Amino acid sequence: MRERWPWAAREPSEECRPSITGRAAGRAAEQRQVSTAAAVVAVAALGGMALARLPIVSHPLPERHRVLVTVLADLPRDALAAAVTRPLERGLLALPGAAAVASRTADGMVRLQLDTGWGADRDRLLAELDSRLAALDLDRGRLRVLRVEAGELNPQPLLEVAVLGGSAAARTAFAEEVLLPELARTAGLGRFETIGGQPLRATVRPWGAALAARGLTALDLVNRLEDLGRSLSAGRVRDGAAVRPLAVRELVTSLAGLRALAVPVGGGGATRLDELAAVDLAAESDGSWFRLDGRDGVLVRAFGARHGGVLAPAREARRRLASLLPRLPRGLRIAVVADRGIELQGALERLAIAAVAGWLLGGALLGFLLAPRALGAKVAPGAAGTKGAAGPSGAAAVSGRRGGRLVDLFGRLGVPATALVVAAATCVPPLACLAAAAVLGPAGLAADPVTIQLLALGGGLMAAQSLLAGWAVAGFRSGGGPAAVSGGTGGRKAWQAGTSTIAGTAAAVRQQAAAAAATGSSAVDERHSPEGSPGRSGPGRQTTRAAAGPGARTATVAWTLAAGWLVVAAALVCVKTCGGVLDAFCATPMTVLLAVLAASGVLCLTVLPIVAGRCRHTADTQDDGGKDELSAGAQKEAACSPAWSSAVLVAGTALAGLGLLGGGLLPRQLTPADPRVLSVDFHQPDDLSREAAERLGREIERAATALLGRALPAGALRRVTARTVGGADPLLAPEANSGVDGRLELGFADPAWSGAAGVVLARRLARDPGVAGVELRSTRGPGEGGNALSSAFGSRDGWLDLEVGGAVDGEAAARARLLVAGLAGRGWTVVPDPRRQRPGVAGLLAVSWDGDRLSRIGIRPSQLEPQLRAALGEVYAGRVEIAGVRPEVRLAPATVPRPELIPLRGAAELQGGRVVPLGALASVLRRQPAPALDRGQRQAVRRLRLLEIAGRRGGPLPPPLSGWGWGRGWPSSPPGGDGPVWPVGRAADLAQLGAQLRLAPSLWLALVFVALAAVSGSLRLAAVVPAAMAVALGGAVALLAAAGEELDLLSCLGCVPAMGLAAFTALAAMTAMAAKAPVPRRSPAAPPAAAASAPGPADGMSPRPEWCGAEGLDRRGRLALSGAGLVTVLPVLLASGAASVGLYRSPAIACLGGVLVCPFISELLVPALARLGGRPCPLGSSAPGAALGAGDGVKDAR
Amino acid sequence: MAVTSEVLHRATFVPELACYGTVTPAATVAIAAPAGGIVTYPRRFGPRLATGEQVALGEVVAEIHSEASLASVEQARIDAEDTQIELARCRKGDELGIESKQNLARCEHEARMAQARLVEARRAAARLQVRSPAAGRLVVTRELPAGSEVVAGALLAEVAAAGPLRVVAFAAAADRALLRPGLAATLLGRAAEHPEAQQAAVGKGRVVEVAPVVDAAGTVRLVIELAPAAAPGAGEGVEVRIALPARPDAITVPEAAVAVAGDGDAVYVLEPAGEWLRARRRAVCLGGRGGGRIEVTAGLAQADRVAVAGVAGLGDGGLAVEAAAPPETPR
Questions:
Q1: Cβ separation of B316 and A842 shorter than 8 Å?
Q2: How far apart are CA A1166 and CA A337, in angstroms?
Q3: Is A335 helix (H, G, I), strand (E, B) or coil?
Q4: Which of A190, A468, A1008, B92 is 20 to 30 Å from A1115 at the Cα level?
């Protein structure tokens, strides 16, 4: 097998050496410095422009949609299920992007709910749905598609503005006529929603007794009002020279006019409308209501347009709101309830500060690392480009003449060379971000806090890249060269020649070698510098410290950077393979991170050599090789002492095991929560009327806030936001909206008070007869402390919905009962699906017509049913033109004490022109309706809802559930039942994430192993890197557990840069070990082939690979790699706070946990693994042997 | 689930029956035009009769100016004068002996007849002054301004005779067995002082008549005579709550306590279960309703504790807590 990796022992021949991209790029950049600089500046400028235009969104999740289809038919439930439900289920599941279909079939009605996967094409979906519905045989069974609704499942209101004060009508009028049009003019805002609007409307509420006394029914009023205000065409008339159409309209322009409307009564007379009904202007609720801190209001929600971003629309909307303030009517005021733009801006500001802090700290670290190596190095004005400075190397001279003007300028200004390198290396991460923005911005990328945060956490990787490249450049320039080590004159000349280019040519190396040979102070091994690598000189230990030259150094750096990038790329491949929620959430941030890392690598290989290439170092540098050797310390111990090595391996294995297996012990959630904000949701019985529910909700709010005021010490409760929103979610089925929900959002100074308050409120609310259920949880949804990302996964994130399947409904019900019993014993709160009618209140009043009597008097039920509907339903009939009043006249349900008294009219000649009560023609019975048939997964299901345990903040899943199903995948056998159980909604996302989190790390490590093995040809190398990554994962999990955090999407994403940095560190450590491996003493005259064919311990030394000519990172450098990750993560961690919308803490902790174990990896684990491979200590002088990769290469060569 | 409970006791319960009715006056007398002609009204009525005007017995409410009647009177007068002249001539001839006794008798007869016709014509002309047949208030359903020409028999107005109002109501035939004369009734309707209130009690009365037959529409006609102090206006529709015979020792529950199930009505009986209450669903038979309560004829016993609020969240065997308990405090 032909080795292509620098770690491989087999020495590559001249012709088989691959073209190393990094080296080629470095050489090209070295030869075209002006072009490179111009390109970098151009890309940075383009990136800046693209960055300025980049839309800012709240999260990286794509859209997903829900489509509700309602079909009416005069068929019983079972017939409807066969004729409509099942065919439609099949059709809907075949739609592009369809993920799940749930249905509910009742007598006469089918309601299907189609949920799409992430990123589904809504337009195409609806088009296909239309064709499916058109294919239904609507004539059969008198089917009628009542409604098709489609909406996003993850709608994100950018702005929520409440109008408070004044009367309900004034609030509504201002919201709808002033506020909404003003906001609608904002670019980037799409849909709007008004909650709690109570517009004035002319309302006619018939009196049953008055109707009966005059022989009228409610339908008579409907018929009378229908033509009111309606223009009826009455032909054409000549008007002068023109013929104009004539329209007839009965116009009512005042309430008095409406009251005086003549209604014909039996016998040819007429009576006034107000004799038959109460006619008033009433504030009509649209079915929703909103209260903020106990005050009624109107809430206007503004949703963002697609690709509209967040910050710019929110800013513009705020400006428009400010312009509205002078126009506010007296008594009204505007309050911004939620402003996603402010939240996002705060988050981004914190991120920006953290990123800049990390960036500067990384630069400082780089300066600290490089300063001793190039202490006193100055850029000598005029030195560059001169023959004397470049030495005899023609290539170097040419290279020096091409560029260096900029560097010369800095030199004339007295800027130290190291400062230039440090500055350049420090600028690499932001330049890489700009380069990535220049490419991804025009491609439609939108920036979001998660991606930016990942970039901030990935700053450690970029800093490590810069460190490695900067160290290579500055180290070689200042003291890493062979001559510096040997101290001979020839060596110094060779070093001077080598300084002209980091990608020096073979000719330059030969010249260096010749110069060195002429001094007799060093020997050059031609085998190791076939293509530009300078040879090593000197026997024994000094030889091991010799550097192979700039070419090999660049190759090493390039390969290390490429390997690190490959590791992160494998993560993206793994995420794409897993698909689902992991792919939807992580793909975009990781793609951006990969692009930035690639740009950073390219910049490291091009910009840094140019900057350093003009430096002339005038001061002698210290050789820290001896110190490094002496400071090997624990690393030597780990590699050489069996006991120490075993201990290190055990610790590493434990950490890796914790990472790979122990992650399952951590509580899992989709998104993080803020424990300082407690959200108390109370649910009221489904059968309450809207007015009763609203009244009860107000009382509950008042009682709860008063109770907390007494129960908690002063200052513990910082904020109370009582908010009741009913019937506002257009995506929920009407059944789901029947319950009334109220929410108290409580902000605490200390998380401890949150728990105490939760207990108090739970006990208080549980004793309230108007409360059917109470949920307490840390806020994950919108609002202060919550984040927009959480709401993308579902607003009801306190609930976990399950479906228990069965072949028939009874089987599903039986299994559901078993499941409830099993979970109840484990401390779970399980409630039946609220959409399913409860046994106590599920009754209905059924009208059973007296068929005999109707036949005798010649009336058909179909004649009476419209009268019933008109009497009991809300009907809009007729229009009025009254200022400030909605034009449609509302006919409210008739006032009847009992349904039996509803007046109906049948055959007038038999009844003498009078009406008769419903009770005379029919019986009104209290009946239990046939339960609707719930289907999901194409079989009968029963739906259950699990409530997160009250009082738990932070929402880790309780042990019973995490031990069942969540940790072992879905569907699974529930406790106490044998049937299949599926999670739906948010629970499905959570379960899918749980399964993916079990698969993804293993898949990632396997991919890394295979990729590295394929590229390097060394199985040992391929094994060490995944092992290091697993240890880093263990560190991340351990720190998450220690910090009390949970495993969520964000913390998983935070593990990616940490594991990438661990891989990078492991590679650097192996580089250092291989560089320190002893090299067999060879005759300079020995041909490379012979040397390659006769390696081994014949001379007591193992062969050293070619790359070992390049000096590996010393201990300080290796630790600096970890330090780079640390200094970039710490600011992000410190940036977590209330204004950071709870996004940053858990990923920063995960990343920090992984970074913290990187020194362990580089200094202890990798040497221990080398010993585990049966190789003697690569650093010990008494134990000659090869380094890990070197030995492996030797074996392969043999 | 927090509930509110109630311990049952036996007590006298008065169920009610509700129906709609129309308020009518005690008697209504029609005032029709006795002859065709031009109608005029006395000065106090103005240009037209108005509903609600109080009139006395025999008071002229309208006058009909009929040309035909005047012509008849004139003709009768002329006839009477002619017959008188003829009678005088016959008497003089009898004195002179030139007329027979028989002819004199015929003239006398004709004179009396003519006089009678004149009297009748004058009487008929006098009847064109329309007088109220009863004391009461006018109910005008069709306004006829003064000067209008009416035909004979045209309805000028109705006089709602003073006296107790009545309510004519129609109850469902199924309830006929519960009804009998003498039952007390309460009227609910729009109160005059609070027109927006639709369920205010506006009067009380007593059932005086129950139709012995059920009409074709399935209703039974009831007549309720109101107490003199009753306020509703005639013609208004009212809701009639008829108090059915009281049921002693009845067990009643609030209507909200009754749950509907597949096999009938049920209530939840609460049993102690430690510090909680356990709800047991119990099927019941229901009787009459009244005052927001409903009689339970079977299924419950005295001293049973039933859930009366919060039933919505209960299930058979479920635990509940009394909502009235004071909340616990932290710390």
A1: no
A2: 54
A3: strand
A4: A1008
| Sheet with strand A875-879: strands edge to edge | A277-283, A200-206, A886-891, A875-879
Please indicate if any CB of chain A lies within 8 Å of the CB of B3: yes
Contacts of B266 (CB under 8 A, 6+ apart): B258, B259, B260, B281, B282, B283, B284, B299
Question: Which residues lie below 8 Å from residue A594, measured CB to CB, with a gap of 6+?
Answer: A565, A568, A569, A572
pLDDT tens digits, one per residue of A598-657: 888 888 877 776 766 544 443 333 344 444 443 444 455 555 566 777 777 788 888 777
Among candidates B20, B196, B328 on the partner chain, residue whose Cβ is nearest the Cβ of A212: B20
What integer pLDDT is reported at residue A26 of this predicted model? 60
What are the tens digits of pLDDT across the range A1018-1037?
A: 777 788 888 889 889 988 88
Q: What is the pLDDT of residue A18?
A: 39
Q: Is B185:B240 a contact under the CB 8 Å cutoff? A: yes
Q: Smallest CA–CA separation between B142 and chain A, in Å?
A: 9
Q: Does B18 touch chain A (CB under 8 A)?
A: yes
Question: pLDDT by residue (tens digit) across A261-274?
Answer: 999 887 667 888 98
Q: Closest residue of A to B258, CA-based?
A: A840
The more confidently predicted of residues B251 and A1113 is B251
Tokens for B228? 């003199």
Mean pLDDT of chain A: 69
- CB proximity under 8 Å: B 221-280 to A: 235-239, 258-263, 265, 268
Q: Do A710 and B329 touch (CB under 8 A)?
A: yes
- Does the pLDDT value for residue A875 go beyond 60? yes
Q: Where do we find the tokens 């259920």? A: A773
Q: How far apart are CA A712 and CA A756, in angstroms?
A: 8
Chain B 146-185, residues with CB within 8 Å of chain A CB atoms? 170-175
Among A417, A400, A429, residue whose Cα is nearest residue A474? A417
3-state secondary structure of A246: strand
Name the residue among A278, A688, A840 with its Cβ closest to that of B315.
A840
In this complex, is the C-beta atom of B43 within 8 Å of any C-beta atom belonging to chain A?
no
Q: Identify residue A845 by its one-letter amino acid code.
A: L
Residue A654: exposed, middle, or buried by beta-carbon count in 10 A (0-12, 13-18, 19+)?
middle
C-alpha A112/C-alpha A934 separation (Å) is 10
Q: What is the pTM of this model?
A: 0.69
Position A491 confidence tier, pLDDT thresholds 50, 70, 90: very low
Which run of H or of E encompasses B239? strand B237-243
- Per DSSP, the residues of A153-185 read SS--EEEEEEEESS-HHHHHHHIIIIIHHHHHT
Buried b (16+ CB within 10 A) or exposed e, A248-259: eeeebeebebbb
ipTM value: 0.73
User: Both tokens of residue A500?
Assistant: 């002209």
**B218: which chain A residues are within 8 Å (Cβ-Cβ)?**
850, 853, 916, 920-921
For an interface test with A, which of B4, B20, B314 has the most A Cβ atoms less than 10 Å from its Cβ?
A: B20
Return the structure tokens found at B93.
Answer: 């001839």
Residues 6+ apart with CB under 8 A from A761: A680, A704, A707, A708, A744, A774, A776
pLDDT tens digits, A451-460: 888 888 888 8
The structure tokens listed for A861 are 């039920």
| Contact: B196, A857; criterion CB under 8 Å | no
Q: Could you report the per-residue pLDDT of A87-145, keeping only the tens digit for each?
A: 888 888 888 888 888 888 888 788 888 888 887 887 888 888 888 777 766 555 566 66
Task: Write out chain B residues lying below 8 Å of A269, CB-based.
Answer: 141
Q: Supply the DSSP symbol for A1184.
A: -
On whether the CB atoms of residues B182 and B207 are closer than 8 A, the answer is yes
